[in-house]
Design brief:
Layout (H helix, E strand, L loop, with lengths): L3 E2 L9 H12 L16 H18 L5 E6 L2 H13 L3 E6 L2 H10 L4 E6 L21 E4 L1 E2 L4 E2 L10 E4 L16 E5 L10 E6 L16 H6 L9 H16 L2 H22 L3 E3 L10 E6 L7 H10 L2 E2 L10 E4 L6 H17 L1
Parallel strand pairs: 1-13, 3-4, 3-5, 5-8, 8-9
Antiparallel strand pairs: 2-10, 6-7, 9-10, 11-12, 12-14
Bound molecules: pyridoxal-5'-phosphate (PLP).
The site of pyridoxal-5'-phosphate has 12 residues, from α3.
Length: 354
């Protein structure tokens, strides 16, 4: 039976990326050596690093004046690294779920943090009614809330620099990078296996802090050394390059967005139609990447039954995050439409027998 991989992260990657990485682990770039055993300073790997940066620029139309970094530590390290590098005294955070709450907590160590939150309604919407404080050094958003299934669908126009955690929606849609000072994310949702963190940073925002920034946590260290100050995560970076080649071959981020809208529309329509299920978040803020739904109250006792039923039909990873319950289907770029259709078929069938 075919498995349909709805895991939230690490998660599905293009078969092409997996296959090319497997080949390179056996024989990297004709060296006869494993990708795992080749110096990051070899000309073959430097070529990978150059190409992955070029494809980031090309696919996201990154303007001049930005650096692209590949670091360790996960998005979670960026929660502290961002304020450490660019916060003098105050920052403004939109707290839209589990990950941004963690980001807020880290920022508080570096100064005053003004927070607008959607916690009042259990993070089921994106706040829209707020004034951006112009005395803050930057504002921070989580563009796609992996746990709750909400997302910002447009780039924010802000009088102060915008920082975005795009761990779970990078390359899922076109973005206007010029509207951001920093974009970061763990790669293990839509780009690569876990182990590498991407950071797109506007060079001109750096170098203004009075505090001591530890060498490894200073963006400038990594910009100067082209992400090779220390050993970068070689295998995940190679895999990320393969994913980007696949995105390019399949029409770029515009085509990804089109597919993602198509897939998520199919599933949301079924959630809204099916008598057993309901969506959990405000319709206008629904994520295209992480689709959260639950059993309607009157069918609550069927939850375990549906999970078992869907699992038997090949669905993997649809159990909702432990903090939300219910179900979450992650529909990242690499998830084929057939998988969404298979989940919908299971939902329809389960409705019929109940
Ligand atoms: C997964 C995730 C993180 C955490 O990433 P790590 O690389 O595990 O630190 C942070 N933010 C968002 C939006 C995520 O989806």
């Amino acid at each position: 039976m075919k498995s349909h991989n709805f895991y939230a992260g690490p998660s599905i990657l293009p078969e092409f990326a997996v296959e090319e990485t497997v080949k390179a682990i056996q024989n990297f770039a004709g060296t006869g050596l494993s990708l795992m055993s080749v110096s990051h300073r070899s000309k073959e790997f430097i070529a990978v690093m150059d190409e992955v940066q070029e494809l980031f620029k090309e696919l996201l139309k990154i303007p001049n004046g930005y650096s692209i970094l590949f670091l360790g530590g996960g998005a979670s390290t960026q929660f502290a690294m961002v304020p450490m590098n660019i916060m003098s005294k105050k920052a403004f955070y939109l707290d839209t779920g589990a990950w941004s709450t963690k980001a807020v907590k880290e920022a508080k160590a570096f100064g005053e943090v003004e927070v607008v939150t959607s916690k009042d309604k259990d993070f089921t919407y994106i706040p829209k009614d707020y004034t951006i404080p112009t005395d803050a050094d930057f504002m921070h958003i989580t563009s796609n809330n992996t746990v709750r299934g909400t997302a910002f669908h447009t780039d924010i126009d802000s009088p102060i620099p915008v920082v975005a955690d795009m761990s779970s929606d990078i390359f899922s849609r076109p973005i206007d990078v010029s509207k951001y000072a920093i974009i970061y994310g763990g790669a293990q949702k839509n780009l690569a296996p876990s182990g590498v963190t991407f950071v797109i940073v506007k060079d001109s925002i750096l170098g203004k802090m009075e505090r001591h920034i530890p060498t490894m946590l200073n963006y400038e260290t990594h910009i100067k050394k082209d992400s090779m100050f220390n050993t970068p995560p070689v295998v995940p970076i190679f895999a990320a390059l393969q994913t980007l080649k696949w995105i390019k071959k399949n029409g770029g981020v515009e085509a990804m967005q089109k597919m993602n809208i198509e897939k998520s529309d199919l599933l949301y329509n079924e959630i809204d139609r099916n008598k057993l299920f309901r969506g959990t978040v405000a319709k206008e803020d629904r994520s295209l990447m992480n689709i959260c739904f639950v059993m309607k109250d009157e069918y609550k006792e069927l939850e375990g039954g549906f999970l078992k039923f869907a699992t038997e039909k090949g669905m993997v990873g649809i159990k909702g995050h432990r903090s939300v319950g219910g179900f979450r289907a992650s529909t990242y770029n690499a998830l084929p439409k057939e998988s969404v259709e298979a989940l919908i078929a299971a939902m329809k069938e389960f409705e019929k027998i109940n």
